[in-house]
Amino acid sequence: MTTPTAAPTTWGDPFPLGLASFGISALVLSTVMSGIVDPAALPAVLPLALALGFATELVAGLVHFRRGETFPALVFTAYAGFWLSYALLVQFYGPMVTAGGAAITGMFLLAWALFTTYMLLAALRTNTTTIVIFVLLAGVFYLAAFGSFLGSAGLGKTAGYVLILDALVALYASAAIIVNTTWDRTVLPVP
């Protein structure tokens, strides 16, 4: 008697999920960073950062790993780590720092800028939309890092406006992938 072999499990494309998770979380955070929304509202961003930015991007990244897609897997799992560490820094650990807070925040942001830069190098082998997302995100991290190091609210606000644009590009890419897949044709081009 032969044991039946289970059919291989197929996994859907998690890329639009990861992009939507990033785009929504980044869009809400960017309104606080840019000053469009009062900075006192920052704690209200943290639940979104944890539930969507962290948890959902982590799921998207793990599915990419399961599918053997290393680049998007690393992108989404690493940035899930960003959202978790950012929420912890803002809510719990940052307020405990009495000396050197701006420097450690600057280093936190600079480390992410460096990571984003080498992910941008990898993205150069993908498509224009993904490249734009990484160029803008690297700009956000560098502006925010140097804004923190220099105590410049202006650089931080500029980072927020760049993040708005980045979030909108990510949301467009997510929409294009899911709409094109659902319609089984190109409705929204992804250059």
From TrEMBL:
The keyword 4Fe-4S does not apply. The keyword Cell membrane does not apply. It is a multi-pass membrane protein. Pfam families: Gpr1_Fun34_YaaH. Keywords: Membrane, Transmembrane, Transmembrane helix. GO terms for molecular function: acetate transmembrane transporter activity. It comes from the Bacteria. Belongs to the acetate uptake transporter (AceTr) (TC 2.A.96) family. NCBIfam families: AceTr_1. This is Uncharacterized protein. It comes from Nocardioides luteus.
